[in-house]
Amino acid sequence: MQTFAFLIHPLSIDDVAKKYKIAKRVSPKVVGQVLRRRPPFVISEIEGIVSATGAKAKGWFVVVPLLPWQFHQLEEDYVLEKIAKACKVARKEGAKIVGLGAFTAMVGNGGERLADLVDIPITTGNTYTTTTAIQGALKAADIMNITTSKSTLAVVGASGSIGRACAQLLAPKFKNILLVGRNIEHLEEVDAILKPNTDGEIRLMTSVSEAVAQSDVILTVTGAVEAVIEPQDIKSGAVVCDVARPRDVSKLVSMVRDDVLVIDGGIIKPPGQVDFKIEFGPPPGMCEGCVGETIILALEGRYENYTLGKKITPAKVMEMSQLADKHGFKLAGLRRLEKLVTDKQIEDIKSSVKKRHLAV
Asked: Are 324 and 349 part of one and the same domain?
């Protein structure tokens, strides 16, 4: 039996309230202060993973009790120490590799500093997240009848590890590419990588709203605590693949824009009758790409530091895609806010797009 653990943390006060109802009756600051004092703990044991090869694995979700804003505001050394303690909890349970979820994957240069502090292999899971994001975005574009070779792609958060890799692999398929981020110099580094491998026009932008308004396909993966894409930003008929956690796309988009297709990136179905035993976002039996990568490495017996730092190579993305196929991992359809996007919903979106175009 292969073993692994995956670190998670509350994404909002609502998540804390699932375990401590009083959290909704006190200020977020007080909740944060209480969480700081709590040590990491195991919240569930993951069972039922059976690879197509016959290999089996079990794992544990270990909670790092910090809210998203605390990962930014607290001293990095303190946060790293807390994450390192969570890795020790995982090792004590029997895990042989640890995956870093959400903001735990961003501290210490994408896990590189943490790797020096712990005696267990770690991975951010960003390689398989990249794989599934690309698969989801292209599938959604095809469904919406978007011809990529004639269309504009925006990668929001293009200088980050996932954004950079997605840009590298998607850019050759599009006519125009908009690289979006806060730091032009960092975007210029990505631009230099893309130019030799794409004939499309590449532009660098710092305004998310301006870039999104011009784009037919948007892949967004920032480290923002709040939404960065609002309803008024998106072009009618566009596809938005939201890979970020917390999500980059405002929940208002699903409420007021019936003419755009927004999907969550990286939702997959691991092989077997998997029971995660907690609600952590995706539907029962499914998980995000970062969790999937950790499971895949365990099934392979690849107990090594795998995805760390800010750079994900296309070669690693292809390797992870092949390993996922080998073990029977599947893209779990298109999903938004952790719910399946049905065929009827897609047809309704297409109908709304036609009505808007006729009204112009």
From this structure: no
